[in-house]
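Technical annex, item 7. During the second reporting period the consortium partners agreed on a shared format for inverse folding records so that results from different sites could be compared directly. Each record opens with the tokenized structure and is followed by the designed sequence. A conforming record, contributed by the partner at site C, is shown below for reference.
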């Protein structure tokens, strides 16, 4: 396969201790263009010795370096540098992400600008977040609650939205004073390399950010290593269980943003056409490769067929094509094994008795690339495999319910609890149903999430939150300091 020039520097090296470092082996990883099935670029594949060097650099930078000892405002200056660097490289994100994961280029460009703003947001918290709180102890004297950096963080990044999921981890971690090892996805390492390039360009102190690309076995070296204080992971629930079990052996800290099988509850007063357009459009976002995707559509039995017909009409009009074509509304899946996975679930849905209404195959006009049609099943039972397991592709299941209470019951009948939505014209009713849904986010009349507030899941959809002030807390340890006198610079309690 012919390699295409990718807009990243030093793909044959790792970014460790502030420099581009030669790998310990000649092992490499091929990154394949999801739209053409051709080789995009190659990166070095980390071995245990490379991971050890990255962890050592991060540990040394935290224990002996200046980073945790800078003021929050000083660290915020570097975050603003990341923001400026990312804005300057938005066009590079627009080249890399669509080829790695199939996302539309228009979405990639907007995301790059948006995530630059996330760096600015966390920089702003340097002056507004209470890293110290003075208290009056119950027995008198002086009391201080301080929030200090948790230490060395291992950030494990998935392939579907690597830029955003790097930013949501490293921005709060760096503000807190942590040092970080970013473990990039083998399928989508490009954005991690861009972050390393920005770190180098802004003069980030050595060892504060380290970037390696590795597969699962070497990634476990990061999780197991006692020099790593916390793991921040986004990925499948199965992998999250494994990480939590490994960290449990040494009581390591973790945040886990895991899978979902999110429900859209369509109440009887919701407009069918508007609801269908919202749901179909959202499912084409990133070709359904979104953990929070609303894939279980729950509607009362009397409105089931009308909603199915409207959804099928919307799906039939979706333009599937190259992520670089401005006319495309949905690109390819990220890789061949992901397309195999989606096609396997479609076959299972048919075998278990769900009615295939739209899609179900590969677009006939596209003979290359990992494309699949947006697919719709009707009369799905919530016990069907396609209603229980995360497919991670553009496949919707419409599930009939007897009434509103039954719809809420079905929505909550899942091991997941990442996202949900309620469709209705009655905002008060929407709020009531939203409070009944066991989900980390509940949108009203659409697919909604906001990392500026908080994002994360109930149940097996994860532990902890990313984004907003809540997303800073997991990178901080709370310490209570008690004394008999008030130190200089603090006020006496009356």
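Designed sequence (site C submission):
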């Amino acid at each position: 396969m012919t390699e295409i020039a990718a807009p990243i520097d030093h793909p044959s090296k790792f970014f460790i201790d502030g420099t581009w470092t030669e790998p310990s082996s000649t092992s490499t990883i091929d990154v394949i263009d999801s739209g053409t099935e051709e080789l995009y670029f190659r990166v070095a594949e980390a071995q245990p010795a490379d991971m050890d060097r990255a962890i050592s650099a991060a540990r040394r930078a935290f224990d002996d370096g200046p980073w945790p000892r800078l003021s929050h405002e000083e660290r915020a200056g570097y975050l603003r540098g990341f923001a400026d660097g990312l804005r300057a490289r938005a066009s590079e994100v627009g080249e890399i992400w669509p080829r790695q994961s199939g996302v539309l280029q228009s979405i990639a460009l907007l995301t790059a600008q948006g995530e630059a703003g996330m760096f600015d947001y966390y920089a702003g918290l340097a002056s507004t977040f209470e890293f110290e709180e003075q208290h009056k102890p119950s027995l008198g004297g002086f009391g201080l609650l301080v929030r200090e950096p948790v230490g060395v963080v291992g950030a494990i990044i998935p392939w579907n939205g690597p830029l955003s999921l790097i930013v949501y981890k490293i921005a709060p971690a760096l503000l807190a004073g942590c040092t970080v090892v970013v473990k990039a996805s083998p399928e989508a390492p490009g954005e991690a390399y861009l972050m390393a390039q920005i770190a180098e360009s802004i003069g980030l102190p050595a060892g504060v950010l380290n970037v390696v690309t590795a597969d699962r076995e070497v990634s476990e070296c990061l999780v197991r290593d006692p020099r790593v204080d916390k793991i921040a992971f986004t990925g499948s629930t199965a992998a999250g269980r494994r990480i939590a079990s490994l960290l449990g052996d040494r009581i390591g800290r973790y945040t886990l943003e895991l899978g979902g099988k999110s429900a859209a509850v369509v109440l009887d007063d919701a407009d069918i056409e508007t609801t269908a357009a919202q749901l179909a459009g959202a499912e084409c976002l990133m070709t359904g490769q979104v953990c929070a995707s609303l894939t279980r559509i729950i509607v009362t039995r009397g409105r089931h067929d009308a909603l199915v017909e409207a959804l099928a009409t919307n799906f039939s009009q979706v333009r599937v094509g190259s992520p670089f074509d401005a006319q495309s509304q949905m690109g390819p899946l990220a890789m061949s094994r992901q397309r195999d996975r989606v096609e396997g679930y479609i076959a299972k849905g048919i075998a278990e008795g769900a009615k295939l209404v739209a899609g179900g195959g590969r677009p006939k006009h596209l003979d290359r690339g990992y494309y699949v049609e947006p697919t719709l099943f009707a009369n799905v039972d919530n016990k069907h495999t396609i209603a229980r397991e995360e497919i991670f592709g553009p496949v919707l299941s419409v599930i009939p319910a007897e009434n509103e209470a039954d719809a809420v019951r079905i929505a909550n009948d899942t091991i997941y609890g990442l996202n949900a939505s309620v469709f209705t014209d009655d905002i008060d009713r929407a709020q009531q149903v939203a409070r009944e849904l066991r989900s980390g986010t509940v949108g009203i009349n659409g697919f909604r999430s906001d990392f500026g507030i908080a994002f994360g899941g109930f149940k097996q959809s994860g532990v902890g939150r990313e984004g907003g002030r809540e997303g800073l807390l997991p990178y901080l340890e709370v310490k209570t300091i008690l004394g008999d006198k008030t130190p200089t610079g603090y006020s006496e309690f009356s």
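The two ends are 75 Å apart (CA to CA). DSSP finds 14 helices and 20 strands in the chain. All partners now use this format for quarterly exchanges.
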